[in-house]
Amino acid sequence: MHAQTPLPWLVVTTVGTAADAQRLARAAVAQRLAACAQVEAIDSVYRWQGAVHEEAEYRILFKTAPARVDALMAALRAAHPYELPALHAWPVRKADPAYAAWVSQGCDDGVDGA
Fold it and tell me: Is 34 exposed, middle or buried (0-12, 13-18, 19+ CB in 10 A)?
């Protein structure tokens, strides 16, 4: 039983190109900052510098361990192409225990508590 496995966190951001989305997704998974990253095309309407914009974007949803949230957000901020990236993180309130264990193992770099 995986009763002691912490529940995953979800981190999300958006970028303007599929190439940027794939770059951020692959880097996060390769660095074990996320166990998984999902990329999807979206349409965004937002206010920026006093004007309303409508643009195609790509949303990236990262599934990560609680201990990796801050490092993942810092890495995304550093590599993000936007001047002011939207970075959101929230804890999962309930998850299948086996899935939660998989996320945790996918982010494990062998450093205790990291």
Answer: buried
Q: How far is 103 from 72, CA to CA, in rounded Å?
A: 14
Kindly calculate the radius of gyration of the chain based on its CA atoms and give it in whole angstroms.
15
How many residues does the structure list for the chain?
114
Q: Over the stretch 89-109, which tens digit does the pLDDT of each residue have?
A: 999 999 999 999 999 999 986
pLDDT tens, residue by residue, 14-73: 999 999 999 999 999 999 999 999 999 999 999 999 999 999 999 999 999 999 999 999
3-class DSSP assignment, residue 37: strand
Those residues whose C-beta lies under 8 Å from the C-beta of residue 97, and which sit 6 or more positions away, are 1, 2, 3, 5
Q: In the CATH hierarchy, which fold is given to the domain comprising 9-106?
A: Alpha-Beta Plaits (3.30.70)
Question: Is residue 34 a contact partner of residue 68, using CB atoms and an 8 Å limit?
Answer: yes
Q: What is the pTM of this model?
A: 0.90
